[in-house]
């Protein structure tokens, strides 16, 4: 039997799964520090090796390397978010240029070493993340990255369809299912018809809003004002707003590394000279220069998860003399993400419109991905379809397992 593997290369986390000879699917567990992990953080860390050449670590090992010496490290996160952006061609790390494809390939080799003769099916979102994303470019780059990692014949499949394949095993008969797959950078929706003879895709929709967008809202409302957002500085005696773009970059994981550019830091320091609260901008510079972003994002992600279980949670973060200790009510958080929720709702309706089906025609709704656990997100579906039609499970592994099942179906079709 040809080995069949599914890989969910995600913005925040990545997972691989293998189809077993008896038809079961098993998530590949990766040894990390004496533990066996299903989920592998999508992150690289570079440091200077012998002779100044860059050395790297991936996944949890990258985080450990970064925390040991953040000032001497370069942390690369959210690589998937750049795939559809033509403006990103390469980045220089310790004097050496790396294309995006090369960075992703380094990560993929650590996650899943090449296995000659195996069939690999990788996931892709319905719509890639980014402003005016180029989906064709993103898919080509993704294929190139897998080829550079030793997988030249990689198949691609839509991530929500993969999650649907896994869910189909729980169905007792024919059904029309809406699948919602919520990642770190994108949210994707597929309407699928399951029959005993196979699966038919009826409609798709995707949008570049997901977990990272919700993190952004927390940072933007709670942290950035302490760093000078909404303050003013003076040009020839005239008050001017401090550039909002700095806080947009600071609050988004995949843009923070770009703010370490000397020009950006010089601009912030220059504005601080005439700012109403210069100490806030100096704190912003310190957080960027001293690579405190990862610790901040981890704290923000933790409070977001806590708000899924409780009506209020506290964001606690400290870096040297900068500290945040802020209570956040779930109602406030839901107000901040209201624009994102509206766009998610529109994407759900778009998938149904493409399928030419009313809400009443959906038999079941399957939700996967960590953001599907946010109560306000779940209410989007309860309002449209009723709580009794909703199902979930395998929030972090269902896409990878479904990709392996798609690989099985494709292998049978081509036999």
From TrEMBL:
<protein>
    <submittedName>
        <fullName>Uncharacterized chaperone protein YegD</fullName>
    </submittedName>
</protein>
<dbReference type="GO" id="GO:0140662">
    <property type="term" value="F:ATP-dependent protein folding chaperone"/>
</dbReference>
<keyword id="KW-0067">ATP-binding</keyword>
<dbReference type="InterPro" id="IPR013126">
    <property type="entry name" value="Hsp_70_fam"/>
</dbReference>
<dbReference type="InterPro" id="IPR043129">
    <property type="entry name" value="ATPase_NBD"/>
</dbReference>
<keyword id="KW-0547">Nucleotide-binding</keyword>
<dbReference type="GO" id="GO:0005524">
    <property type="term" value="F:ATP binding"/>
</dbReference>
<dbReference type="Pfam" id="PF00012">
    <property type="entry name" value="HSP70"/>
</dbReference>
<dbReference type="InterPro" id="IPR042054">
    <property type="entry name" value="YegD-like"/>
</dbReference>
């Amino acid at each position: 039997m040809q080995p069949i593997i599914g890989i969910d290369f995600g913005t925040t986390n990545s997972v691989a799964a293998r189809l077993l000879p008896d038809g079961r699917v098993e998530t590949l567990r990766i040894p990390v520090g004496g533990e066996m992990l299903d989920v592998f953080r999508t992150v690289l860390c570079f440091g200077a090796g012998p002779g100044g050449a860059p050395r790297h670590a991936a996944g949890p090992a990258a985080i450990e390397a970064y925390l040991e010496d953040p000032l001497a490290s370069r942390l690369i996160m959210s690589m998937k978010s750049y795939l559809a952006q033509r403006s990103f061609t390469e980045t220089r790390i310790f004097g050496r240029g790396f294309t995006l494809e090369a960075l992703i390939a380094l990560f993929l080799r650590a996650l899943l070493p090449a296995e000659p003769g195996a069939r690999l099916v990788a996931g892709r979102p319905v719509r890639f993340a980014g402003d005016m994303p180029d989906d064709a470019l993103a898919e080509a780059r993704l294929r190139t990255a897998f080829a550079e990692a030793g997988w030249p014949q990689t198949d691609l499949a839509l991530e929500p369809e993969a999650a649907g394949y896994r869910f189909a095993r729980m169905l007792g008969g024919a059904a029309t299912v809406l699948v919602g797959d919520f990642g770190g950078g994108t949210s994707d929706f597929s309407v699928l018809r399951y029959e005993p003879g196979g699966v038919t895709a009826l409609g798709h929709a995707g949008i570049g809003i997901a977990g990272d967008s919700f993190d952004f809202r927390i940072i933007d409302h709670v942290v950035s004002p302490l760093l000078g957002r909404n303050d003013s500085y003076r040009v020839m005696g005239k008050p001017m707003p401090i550039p909002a773009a700095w806080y947009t970059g600071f609050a988004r994981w995949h843009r923070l590394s770009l703010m370490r550019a000397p020009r950006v830091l010089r601009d912030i320091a220059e504005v601080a000279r005439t700012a109403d609260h210069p100490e806030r901008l100096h704190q912003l510079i310190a957080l960027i220069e001293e690579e405190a972003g990862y610790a901040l994002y981890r704290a923000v992600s933790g409070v977001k998860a806590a708000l899924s279980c409780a009506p209020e949670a506290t964001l606690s973060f400290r870096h040297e003399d900068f500290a945040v200790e802020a209570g956040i009510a779930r109602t406030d958080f839901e107000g901040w993400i209201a624009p994102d929720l509206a766009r998610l709702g529109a994407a759900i309706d778009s998938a149904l419109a493409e399928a030419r089906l009313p809400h009443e025609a959906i038999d079941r709704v399957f939700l996967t991905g960590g953001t599907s656990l946010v109560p306000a997100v779940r209410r989007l579906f309860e309002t449209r379809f009723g709580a009794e039609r909703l199902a979930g499970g395998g929030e972090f592994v269902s896409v990878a397992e479904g990709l392996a099942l798609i690989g099985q179906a494709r292998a049978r079709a081509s036999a």
